[in-house]
Each structure stands twice: as C-alpha cells, then as structure tokens.
C-alpha cells in the first residue's frame, strides 16, 4: 500500500513539472526571421518591423500632387491640385475622376500617345492650367494625346473640358474670374506662356453648371502669345468648340466637329494674329442645338464696344461646313465691337444624299442689339452649296468680299485625328 502511494506521488510530481515546462516553452518568444515570407517573432509586417528592417509606410492621399511618386498621382483616380512637376505617361491609361488643377510654378507633362478617360456625369471633372502654371502636351501626328469620356456610351457633356488661364490682356478689367471654375485670368503680359498643346484631341466635353455657365471643349482665358497651340481637335461638345476670353494666343490647325453651340467663339479682347486653318463641321444627323448655334460668334465687350484691347484676331484659311438639317442662327456673327480679318474663307451648306439642306438665318451678320461689329472688320469668303452669299447684314460698312474659288482650310492636315472630314463638292 505504501508502495502504491509513493508511485502516485512520483507521477503527480512529474505531471506538475511537465506542465510547468510546457508553460515556460509557450512563453518563449519566437525569433523574427526577417526573410521567410511570413510575419513572425517581433515583426509587425511580413519580414519587417520589430527587430527587422522597418516596414515601408504608404502615405495617405491628401488631394495635392507634389511629385511623380505622390500617392495622389493615381492612374485610376486622377484628380487634385498639382503643385510639382509631374508626367502622365503613355504606357498608362489615366482615369480623370475630378478636377485636376495645375498650380502656379508647376508643370503638367503629357507624353505623346497618352489617353485620359474622364468619368462622366459631373461638372467637377476637368483639367485646368492656372496662371503661371504650364502644360507640356506635345503629341505627334502618329501619337496624339486624347482626352475623352470614360463612359461605355459616351455623349456630349459627359465631362468638363480643358482650360488654360494666362496673364495676357483682357478688356473686362485688369483681371477677371473665369465663369466656370473661378480661375483668375488676365494681366499685362502679352507674351505670357501657358505651355504647349500639339496634336491634342478632346471629346464629349461641355458639362453645364446652370444655364449660363458651361464648359467648352478648350477654353483660353487671357492666354498669351508665348503659348504654342498647334493641331487641336474638339469633337462632340455640348457647348462651344473653342472659346477665347481675351489674350493674344494664336492657334494653328483647329478642327471642331459637332459642337452643340458655337464652333469658334471669342470675347473680351482676343487678338491672336497668327491663326490659320480653322475647320468647323456640323454633320448630317447632328441636330442637337442651343438657342443660337453659330459657326463663329465674336464679341469684344457688350458693355463698352470700344473697350481696349478690342477683339481683333486674324484667321487665314477658314471652312465652316453645315450638313445638318437644322437652322443655324448665323454662319458668321461679328458684334459688340469685335473686329476680325478673315482670308481664304469658305462657307458651305450641303445636303446629305436624299435629304434637304439645312439653313442659316444669316450668312454673315455684323449687327446686334448690344452693338455692331467694328468697321475695321474684313472678311474674304466664298459661298458653296445652299449657302446664300448675298445674305449679309453690314450696317457698319465693313469690307465683306464674297468671291469665287476660295479653298478654305486644308482638311488633309487633320488626318491625325482619325476623323474623316466630309468632302465639299
């Protein structure tokens, strides 16, 4: 009996010792490997932290893009204030999800061949280049830059547009505030530069903010002559194709297709002197219109027609082609103190096969309730098809010459867009 009790005592003691030994083993902290692909030991992440190399941290987005490696420079969610020099590369498809505003001192570079897809459905999706900021968007004929709608069924007005604001003179004040995004523009620097646009195509622009505020395809606010703009195309916009608010910038080779309102529009003293090869088209079947769609709508200043500087651009090589069945308000409307010099102009109204031709209330109208065109206006133009070259309102005695044989803009220079321009014959 004593032997049995002794054996039980030994077994119990062994069990207690074994239990203590197990507890001690469990309390021993495993060693961090720092290299086995799993989190262990003192590691706070996989093979990092604790006694290993510190884990990399991911900066949180703050709505400001300061550099190329900033987390806000997100290809799938591109928006924010650009305060450093950044590049949108062609190897990446960029989704513009909100306002991308390039601030003073910063440069936005867009590589040739880059595509930017703008989310549809909001008025806060746009690209803006502020005063003293730069855009370097130099596409090529073989690799143009495209900014278009991300919608599977894109429509005009899906997103805002491209806006440049400079420091060149305007006639609405020393400076002014842009009507859609509140940018300051205007100044005294005629040769101010906002950068370069070459071989750039924008599509489905024109989101509206109320009845009087709308985005155009490309808008130049007080942009100076130091800015280079060559080979641009605006297709399927819900308002104007291109609009200039003062400034001295010139544009070479501009194509506007199916703008719901005006194809080319200027005001507030735009005075670009080296514009050439403007081609505007309203296609057959495109019958969406505003109250008064025009090929050209030109103002200087409705409150003071003689305000300085006066709108007075020059355009060499202009074609306005109207194929839709709707009635245009005017093919060319110059008013409110604006002047212009147009050479080698061609206005054509042509019916599609088996259809009636569209029309225009006026071929050229230099009158307006808020002031007529400047008498210095000079327009040399040919009429083609159903365009009535005798329908001219010219109370100011401007030099309007309707001639035979003008060729207008050179359509072959827009082959890079992929758009097939209807022939005029």
Protein architecture, described:
- The chain has one helix spanning 2-26; strands at 64-65, 78-82, 86-88, 94-102, 107-110, 115-118, 126-129, 134-138, 145-149, 162-165, 176-177, 184-185, 195-203, 208-209, 213-214, 218-221, 228-235, 242-245, 251-257, 264-267, 275-282, 294-298, 314-322, 327-334, 341-349, 359-365, 378-385, 392-393, 399-402.
- The protein has a 25-stranded parallel β-sheet that branches. Strands 11-12 form a two-stranded antiparallel sheet.
- Helix content is 6%, strand content 35%.
- By secondary structure, the chain is mainly β.
- The protein is elongated and about 95 Å long.
- It has one helix and 29 strands.
- The model is unreliable at 1-26 (pLDDT under 50).
* SSE run: HEEEEEEEEEEEEEEEEEEEEEEEEEEEEE
Radius of gyration: 32 Å
Which class do the helix and strand fractions yield?
mainly beta
Give the number of helices: 1
Strand content range: 35-45%
* Biggest sheet character: 25 strands, parallel
Average pLDDT confidence is 92
Distance separating the two termini: 126 Å
Helix content: under 10%
Please mark out the parts with pLDDT under 50 across 5 or more consecutive residues, or reply none: 1-26
Label the overall shape: elongated
Number of strands: 29
SSE map:
Elements lengths: L1 H25 L37 E2 L12 E5 L3 E3 L5 E9 L4 E4 L4 E4 L7 E4 L4 E5 L6 E5 L12 E4 L10 E2 L6 E2 L9 E9 L4 E2 L3 E2 L3 E4 L6 E8 L6 E4 L5 E7 L6 E4 L7 E8 L11 E5 L15 E9 L4 E8 L6 E9 L9 E7 L12 E8 L6 E2 L5 E4 L23
Parallel strand pairs: 1-2, 2-4, 3-5, 4-6, 4-7, 5-8, 6-9, 7-10, 8-13, 9-13, 10-16, 13-17, 16-18, 17-19, 18-20, 19-21, 20-22, 21-23, 22-24, 23-25, 24-26, 25-27, 26-28, 27-29
Antiparallel strand pairs: 11-12, 14-15
């Amino acid at each position: 009996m004593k032997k049995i009790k002794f054996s039980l005592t030994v077994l119990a003691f062994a069990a207690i010792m074994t239990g203590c030994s197990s507890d001690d083993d469990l309390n021993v902290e495993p060693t961090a490997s720092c290299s086995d692909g799993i989190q262990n030991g003192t590691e706070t992440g996989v093979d990092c932290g604790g006694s290993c190399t510190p884990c990399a941290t991911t900066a949180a987005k703050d709505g400001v893009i300061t550099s190329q490696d900033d987390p806000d420079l997100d290809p799938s969610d591109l928006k924010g204030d650009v305060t450093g020099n950044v590049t949108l590369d062609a190897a990446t498809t960029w989704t513009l999800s909100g306002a991308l505003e390039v601030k003073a001192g910063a440069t936005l570079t867009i590589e040739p061949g880059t595509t930017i897809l703008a989310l549809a459905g909001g008025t806060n999706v746009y690209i803006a280049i502020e005063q003293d900021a730069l855009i370097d968007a130099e596409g090529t004929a073989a690799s143009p830059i495209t900014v278009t709608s991300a919608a599977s069924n894109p429509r005009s007005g899906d997103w805002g547009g491209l806006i440049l604001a400079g420091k060149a003179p305007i006639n609405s004040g020393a400076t002014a505030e842009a009507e859609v995004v509140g940018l300051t523009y205007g100044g005294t620097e005629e040769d101010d530069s906002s950068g370069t646009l070459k071989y750039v195509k924008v599509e489905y622009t024109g989101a509206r903010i109320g009845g009087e505020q709308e985005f155009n395809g490309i808008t130049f606010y007080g942009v100076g002559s130091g800015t280079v703009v060559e080979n641009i195309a605006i297709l399927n916009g819900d308002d104007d194709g291109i609009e200039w608010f003062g400034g001295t910038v010139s544009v070479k080779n501009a194509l506007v297709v199916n703008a719901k309102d005006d194809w080319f529009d200027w005001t507030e003293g735009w005075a670009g002197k080296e514009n050439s090869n403007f081609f505007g088209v309203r296609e057959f079947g495109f019958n969406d219109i505003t109250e008064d769609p025009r090929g050209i709508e030109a103002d200087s200043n409705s409150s003071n027609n003689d305000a300085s500087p006066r709108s007075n651009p020059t355009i060499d090589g202009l074609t306005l082609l109207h194929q839709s069945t709707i009635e245009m308000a005017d093919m060319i409307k110059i008013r409110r103190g604006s002047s212009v010099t147009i050479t080698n102009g061609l206005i054509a109204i042509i019916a599609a096969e088996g259809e009636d031709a569209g029309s225009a209330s006026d071929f050229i109208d230099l009158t307006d309730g808020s002031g007529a065109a400047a008498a210095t206006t000079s327009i040399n133009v040919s009429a083609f098809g159903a365009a009535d070259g005798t329908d001219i309102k010219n109370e100011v005695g401007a030099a309007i010459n309707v001639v035979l044989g003008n060729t207008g803009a050179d359509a072959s220079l827009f082959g890079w867009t992929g758009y097939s321009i209807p022939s005029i014959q």
